[in-house]
Amino acid sequence: MLTNETQKLFDDAQHIVFMTGAGVSTASGIPDYRSKGGLYSTSELDRPEYLLSHTCFQREPERQYKFMKENMYFPNAKANIIHEKMAAFVKAGKARVITQNVDGLHTQLDPTTIEFHGSLYRIYADIDHKPASVNDYLKSMYRAGDQAILRPDITFYEEMPQHVEAAIAAVAEADLVVVVGTSFKVYPFAGLIDYAPSRAVKIAINMEQIQTHIPIKQIIADATQFFAALQLR
Q1: Which of 26, 133, 175, 227 is the most exposed place for a label (fewest CB within 10 A)?
Q2: Pairwise CA distance, residues 6 & 26, whole Å
Q3: What was the pLDDT predicted at 36?
Q4: 160: burial class by Cβ within 10 Å (0-12, 13-18, 19+)?
Q5: Are strands 131-132 and 114-115 parallel, antiparallel or unpaired?
Q6: Contact 57, 156 (CB under 8 A)
Q7: 194: number of CA atoms within 13 Å, CB side?
Q8: CA neighbor of 121 nearest in space, from 66, 74, 56
Q9: 10-residue stretch averages of pLDDT, the chain, 233 residues long
């Protein structure tokens, strides 16, 4: 799984970029999206791509709210060894994290995390963008007082992701890009790897192979075991 050769890649790298997806948080008890048994493969759910879209927010906000509240919020989830080890590399000045995840677990340990699709735990009123508490939101999707509709600060389908320029800049400086826990099918997130220098080493650590149009070393392994073994030195 973690060979001496792969460990040396991390030892030698000075600008690591971790690109993470939902598979990073499964060890924290949060279901992933596109793997077998994930959120998007649960047959009784009606088209999550629609239910998490801007169109649904405009047309059926109450239905969308119910779906998110019942399927996406895990306020008691804690960061796991993958988050911890990545945060340690960041603290050492060797890495940045760019995540698709909206669960906030990376940010618990590393406030510099680039949350490409935002966070479920930042809430605002759509009408005026004033912040609200997540506790209030989980009680009601309407703001007390004026009944303005609240929403999480996440990127719905049909919306532009967040911090795109910062993400591109981070990848452009990388000498090692590490893709972890993602099917790598969602764009423009997956397209960020195109901004990595040609000299940068690219590796993927997943339970299944991913498809990319550029050469990438694929390590088929449980990421929790890989990162538990990985040393920061």
Answers
A1: 133
A2: 24
A3: 42
A4: exposed
A5: unpaired
A6: yes
A7: 9
A8: 74
A9: 96 98 95 57 63 96 95 95 98 98 97 98 97 97 97 97 97 98 93 97 95 93 97 96
Q: Hey, what are 18's tokens? A: 């971790």
CA distance to 61, 70, 94, 191, per residue, from 116 (Å): 23, 23, 20, 12
Q: What's the CA gap between 182 and 13, in Å, rounded?
A: 22
Separation of CA 55 from chain center: 22
Q: How far is CA 224 from the centre of its chain?
A: 16
Query: Is 93 in contact with 16 (CB distance < 8 Å)?
Result: no
Between CA 158 and CA 151 the distance in angstroms is 15
Q: Among all residues, which ones are annotated catalytic? A: 117
| DSSP single-letter state for residue 22 | G
Q: What does the alpha-carbon distance between residue 53 and residue 88 come to, in Å, rounded to a whole number?
A: 35
Please identify which residue in the block is written with the tokens 């600008």: 15
**Residues present in the chain in total:** 233
Strands 95-99 and 16-20: parallel
**What's the CA dihedral at 187, 63, 54, 181 to 10 degrees?**
-20
Whole-angstrom distance, CA of residue 97 vs CA of residue 20: 8
- Tokens matching residue 56: 């649904």
Extract the tokens encoding 232: 């920061």
